[in-house]
Design a protein that fits this description.
- This protein is an alpha+beta fold.
- It has two domains: about 130 residues, Transferase(Phosphotransferase), domain 1; about 110 residues, Nucleotide cyclase, GGDEF domain (Alpha-Beta Plaits, 2-Layer Sandwich), CATH 3.30.70.
- It has a four-stranded antiparallel β-sheet, covered by helices on one side.
- The longest helix has 19 residues.
- InterPro entries: A/G_cyclase, Cyclic_nucleotide_synthase, Kinase-like_dom_sf, Nucleotide_cyclase, Prot_kinase_dom, Ser-Thr/Tyr_kinase_cat_dom.
Length: about 290
Amino acid sequence: MITNFGLMTLYQTISNENNENVDCFQPTSSHLLWSSPEVKLNPCRWGSKESDVFSLSIIMSEVINQSSPYNSQDSKTTDSIIRSIGSGIYVRPTVDSTDVPDDIIDLMEQCWSDNPDRRPSIDDIHEKFSAHSEGKNIHNNDSLLDFQFFSAFLNYNRPVADALKLGQTIEPDKFEEVTVYFSDIVGFTTISAYSRPIEIISLLNDLYTSFDRIIDSYQVYKVETIGDAYMVVSGVPERRSDHAEQIADMALDILHSCTQIKIAHLPGVPLKIRIGINTGKRRKNRT
């Protein structure tokens, strides 16, 4: 049921079990951007595997373009695009195929064929993707594990990283005074509810790119980012007497930078962050 595939069948099944007389499930206008021509011609028609394949092709175009469907047709409204396709006029997203393998483009175009019988099955699509990625670590678990290990390794300071490369054990160390910075986005849950995943990724990328650029000017150490949370520390791994000053000045710069960052898909919503700072002792654990 992930990505809404198959939900129409589930909805129909539940309706039948509840003895509800449901003749038509009316999708919203925006949802029809992912719908196949046969569904656009008859919105009351229940979905099918073939129409799901068409929807998949539109999602593929979104992934390739990193934008909403039909984003290149700026002069056309959602309703006009839906009317064009529903009336038999061939309208499909314009895709920038510069860095995309030809076989993936061919597969996408097969999936959005006007004729449902000419669209490949999900099994065929899976087979073609598997063949394309054979011998490559593209979005596979081993690639993810390598990335997680590499990311964790980068979080260590140079002396610790060098010692780990030599197979040495890192003994616990105590830091009498360090200052820790935390921040997150105010109303992030609400913003997420009105955003698509790619829009959230774009927002966080813009935000953290700005933050990373700022902390390069200070004697601080970025510990991690989790979702919309950003954590920085000063006074560790390098002991400093001005750790609180470094974090405070950095926090003010970060706070000011948020006034320059706009939420592109929610232009009327200001970006606000909450900041917490604490100074105290810290123990670096054995590694």
